[in-house]
Design goal:
The protein is mainly β. Helices cover 8% and strands 58% of the residues. A five-stranded mixed beta barrel has the order 1-2-3-5-4. A hairpin with a 5-residue loop joins strand 1 and strand 2.
């Protein structure tokens, strides 16, 4: 039996920056926020945002330019999940969900998606 570690996200990019290393490899580190919505016991709408840190490494023949990933864009990310553990300066242990992206697709903005739905 094989192991499976797969994650797929659709959300909005927070921060984004590209780093270049001496061996000419590049990585785009960016954050993506997703929301889970529902209704509480009183019937009020509630949403639960979750932030993920994503790393996308440049690859030969990749169709997406790392510099195209910018704050505010809707993206769909597929990759694997890695839990990074670290200690804060206050001595508290924290866990951060990090995604090592295999693919990133930039989606049309919300207004464009709504217009496309009305056109059909």
């Amino acid at each position: 039996m094989e192991f499976i570690n797969r994650i797929q996200l659709r959300g909005v990019v927070g921060r984004a920056d590209v780093s270049t290393f001496p061996n000419d490899s590049r990585v785009c580190n960016f954050s993506v926020v997703t929301e889970y919505g529902g209704v509480d016991k009183e019937g009020n709408s509630v949403s639960e945002p979750t932030w993920f840190n994503v790393s996308l490494w440049s690859r030969e023949g990749a169709q997406l330019n790392l510099y195209d990933i910018q704050k505010g864009l809707w993206v769909e990310v597929a990759g694997r999940l890695r839990l990074r553990r670290y200690i804060t300066q206050a001595g508290e242990e924290r866990v951060s969900p990090d995604v090592i992206a295999r693919s990133v697709k930039i989606l049309p903005r919300e207004e464009e998606r709504m217009q496309a739905q009305r056109d059909y």
